[in-house]
């Protein structure tokens, strides 16, 4: 299916979880208390509606009596999201088909065919958002993650060669997160775990409490993909300070994703995690990449100035850990990232269509990326090679045959 001769691996394509996922997949005593989902006007969505054509209308959720997001009742955010969604859904008739099917796996595969995407690593939408509250009880948060992962496994079974999934883990209890990581990788075939870049209950990624997770990921040889979310009620969230003020939604969304990822990059590199765990692989997703060269320069500069007196010493500059172990996703139309790729080399970059989110570019995501002034070698690395190396996904046999044919002597 390669488009313009390039194999394409989407680093971060999204599933839109049905409203009855938790009723169907929650286990044990938690099954009696599933999350409740609400539409744009805060009405409760009935089971059948949330499961099918109204998946787009889910704007907020009540989880164990807690509201996610904190701005779910904001008329400004509702109007802003509704207008973006209206323009997005008008771009291609497939959205009507996908929405009527509840964005199920067959409709996602059709969307991939329309874009020209060969393989996608699937990340959640509400599966991410539903864990973004500090006050969830740890056992309940772990049960939500387990339910989501079981559903995601069933979703990707539709075509396991093309649909891979990243497992959700709840950082409210690192021990339970490690258990779920092992289960998902060994039993369900997850190719990554999804990382929360924000602190949860004040716990930063480079705190000692997180060490068991890094040990497990090294042992299992799977990466962590850090992915912010717009629907968050975490106390330590870069967008929270703008909630309730005019035009907060575009301001908070623009700031949250790159800033939270900057913090995660700092923890993984300057915080010493990648010093202690040289085999750990990390990805930083859906927060653009045009800032990366400057941010690594600043981390290096500050380590040289302040690092010699710090508690944990590093054997390399922070930027060198990133180049050894990390990848970052650029947006399909991100012209500022072209200069960063040229400065750093293409080896650290991946790309995503972000389907079916309203701020994605479907059905023109791949077309827009191919419009960026990259060389054929840079495109090949960003569209497939780097992402395949990140997630440990083998190149399809048909593509290998084509590559060998190119090397065969002629005449």
Structural write-up:
44% of the residues lie in helices and 11% in strands. The chain has 17 helices and eleven strands. The chain has helices at 21-25, 47-51, 75-89, 94-100, 105-115, 126-129, 138-156, 174-188, 211-220, 248-269, 273-276, 292-306, 318-325, 336-344, 365-370, 376-391, 397-407; strands at residues 9-14, 36-38, 60-63, 66-68, 119-123, 163-168, 192-195, 224-226, 282-284, 326-330, 349-351. Strands 1-5-6-7-8-9-10-11 form an eight-stranded parallel β-sheet, with helices on both faces. The longest helix has 22 residues, at 248-269. It is globular.
In short:
The protein is α/β, with parallel strands linked by helices. Helices cover 44% and strands 11% of the residues. The chain has helices at residues 21-25, 47-51, 75-89, 94-100, 105-115, 126-129, 138-156, 174-188, 211-220, 248-269, 273-276, 292-306, 318-325, 336-344, 365-370, 376-391, 397-407, and strands at 9-14, 36-38, 60-63, 66-68, 119-123, 163-168, 192-195, 224-226, 282-284, 326-330, 349-351.
């Amino acid at each position: 299916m390669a488009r313009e001769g390039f194999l394409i691996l989407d680093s971060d394509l999204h599933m839109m979880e049905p409203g009855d996922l938790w009723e169907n997949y929650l286990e044990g005593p938690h099954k009696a208390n599933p999350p409740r989902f609400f539409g744009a006007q805060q009405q409760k969505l009935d089971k059948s509606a949330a499961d099918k054509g109204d998946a787009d209308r889910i704007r907020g959720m009540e989880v164990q009596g807690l509201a996610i997001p904190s701005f779910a009742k904001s008329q400004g955010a509702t109007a802003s999201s509704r207008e973006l969604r209206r323009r997005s859904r008008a771009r291609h008739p497939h959205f009507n088909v996908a929405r009527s099917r509840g964005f199920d796996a067959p409709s996602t595969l059709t969307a991939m065919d329309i874009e020209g995407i060969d393989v996608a690593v699937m990340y959640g939408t509400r599966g991410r958002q539903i864990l973004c509250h500090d006050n969830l009880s740890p056992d309940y948060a772990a049960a939500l993650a387990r339910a989501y992962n079981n559903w995601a496994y069933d979703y990707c079974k539709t075509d396991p060669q093309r649909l891979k999934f990243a497992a959700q883990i709840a950082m409210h209890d690192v021990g339970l997160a490690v258990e779920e990581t092992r289960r998902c990788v060994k039993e369900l075939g997850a190719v990554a775990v999804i990382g929360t870049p924000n602190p949860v209950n004040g716990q930063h990624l480079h705190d000692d409490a997180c060490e068991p997770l890094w040990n497990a990921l090294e042992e299992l040889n799977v990466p962590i993909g850090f992915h912010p979310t717009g629907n968050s009620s975490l106390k330590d969230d870069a967008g929270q300070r703008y909630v309730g003020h005019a035009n907060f939604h575009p301001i908070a969304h623009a700031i949250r994703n790159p800033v939270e990822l900057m913090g995660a990059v700092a923890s993984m590199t300057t915080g010493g995690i990648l010093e202690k765990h040289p085999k750990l692989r990390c990805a930083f997703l859906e927060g653009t990449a045009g800032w990366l060269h400057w941010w690594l320069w600043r981390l290096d500069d500050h380590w040289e100035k302040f690092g010699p007196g710090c508690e944990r010493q590093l054997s390399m500059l922070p930027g060198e850990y990133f180049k050894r172990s990390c990848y970052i996703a650029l947006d399909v139309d991100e012209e500022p990232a072209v200069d960063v790729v040229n400065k750093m080399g293409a080896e650290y970059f991946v790309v995503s269509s972000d389907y079916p989110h309203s701020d994605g570019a479907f059905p023109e995501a791949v077309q827009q990326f191919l419009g960026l002034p990259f060389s054929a070698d840079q495109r090949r690395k960003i569209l497939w090679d780097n992402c395949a190396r990140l997630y440990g996904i083998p190149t399809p046999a048909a593509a290998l045959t084509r590559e060998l044919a190119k090397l065969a002597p002629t005449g």
